[in-house]
Amino acid sequence: MATTSQKKTSAQKVYDTFIVGAGISGLAAAIKLKKEGYHDFKIIEKASRVGGTWRENTYPGCGCDVPSSLYSYSFALSSKWSHLFARQPEILSYLESVSEEFNIASLIEFDNALENASWDESRHLWVLDTQKGQYLAKTVIFATGPITESQIPKLPGLDTFKGEMFHSAKWNHDFDLTGKRVAVIGTGASAIQFIPQIQPKVKELFVFQRTAPWVLPKPDMPLNETSKQVIDKLPIIQRGWRKAVAGSLTAINVGLRNPGLLKPVGAAAKQLLKVQVKDKALRKAVTPDFTLGCKRILFANNYYPALQADNTKLIPHGLVQVEGNTVIAANGERHEVDVIIWGTGFDVSHPPIGKKIINAAGQRVSDLWKDSSPEAYLGATLENVPNAFLVLGPNVLVYDSFITLAESQLNYIIDGLKKMKSKGFSRFEIKSDVIKAHNEKVQKHLQTTVFNSGGCKSYYLDQNGRNFAAWPWSLATLKKRLLSFDLADYDVAYEAQRSRSAA
Ligand SMILES: Cc1cc2nc3c(=O)[nH]c(=O)nc-3n(C[C@H](O)[C@H](O)[C@H](O)COP(=O)(O)OP(=O)(O)OC[C@H]3O[C@@H](n4cnc5c(N)ncnc54)[C@H](O)[C@@H]3O)c2cc1C
């Protein structure tokens, strides 16, 4: 195996920008850079296709829970969606077609993972060691994804399980579930999408629910050829539809920041539960005990019916132990199963990119995030990590499309790169007092939001109960803050200063 030094390329070209990852964010970064006339960038992707989340998650029923009019790029609206809420295969092919249409696919070096990114203070450069060689770049955009690390709890006896076992994000399509006894662990966003798909096939389905989620009806419907043609011919309809969806999500966001306002929605959801779930004991078991919005609100029309099927049993407790093929719930209930499917979500509070970055102080960033989750400025820049940006970093999550959030952040990032070029500085780093004051304010304002006060344990909170994910204000405020890369927030240095200090 080649060592890092053996892999060094002789030319040692210095790129203006290096993009890591070709999911939604990395693709948008490349497209926006090109649009602004930047061509001196490289983009690498560890997999052999674009798509990130939508390439990895292929479980039955996988799809977006934000209407596709909004879950699509502002610069590449599509009239081809099969439903109001698109399914995973079509989102993946949409991303592939966008990457072709904007001539990005040919720029991506696939099957090449970033292994190490170290800041070289003497040259004001990033040294990027990848599987395929070493690169140098003045700036880096880490577009490596917010929700990537599937988590499986370490339970006693798990190693004694002799059946088939996989996580929803690594679905084993070669394994036929027909006629099998299946335990699904978890009732989060992925589980409520795949449970209705597998229930008709399996012999017995045991659904382990630690916390009952809020599930609202999904206002979904198929789009026939005529609707697609109308949308295609009249882009104004598409824009209007997008605006209407954005407007309703803005209303939800107001409620998330003012939980009192969500009470009527919670009451309506409970009423719906009454209509959809006839059995009183089951209804009680699936009624959430926290304020709506504290965890991500889920939308499904087929979840409660699947729970009421004859072959399904809801176990309103977590799985705590496995003994051979017996799965044991927290209340002691035991069931024999052939398959365990983990719908246990993702570890989002320790972004894996931290393991790859060595900051200006020579520290591995993941070491700094070990006992707490990351802090960034506007989710984009990190203390002690000069000339680098994260996309979809901490505390920018607003209840909206992640694509909108990524695009807004990229406007900020590209404004920073433009200022770097026009003003001629070779190094920028977020000021310590600015990032500190920003995060203190973020944390203070999060206290009254439903995420912090709604009485639930969600993936927004890290192991210390700190909310590292949500943005406490409106999307409009976030967008406004991301309009301009304000140089007053950054320490900047010029080439001449670098040369003097290096001498
Ligand atoms: C099941 C699921 C459903 C979701 N549904 C929605 C939804 O309905 N609405 C919504 O708004 N959001 C949803 N999300 C969030 C979703 O992650 C974002 O919407 C979006 O896809 C993030 O795109 P990204 O490009 O930032 O990250 P990703 O899609 O994760 O892409 C990151 C890319 O970086 C690559 N990469 C990572 N590390 C390296 C490395 N070291 N070297 C090279 N390449 C690397 C990865 O291979 C990947 O291709 C969902 C997430 C999941 C998991």
Automatic annotation (TrEMBL):
Keywords: Monooxygenase, Oxidoreductase. The keyword Cell wall biogenesis/degradation does not apply. Signal peptide: none annotated. InterPro entries: FAD-bind_Monooxygenase_sf, FAD/NAD-bd_sf, Flavin_mOase. Pfam families: Pyr_redox_3. Coiled coil: none annotated. GO terms for molecular function: flavin adenine dinucleotide binding; monooxygenase activity; NADP binding. This is Monooxygenase flavin-binding family protein.
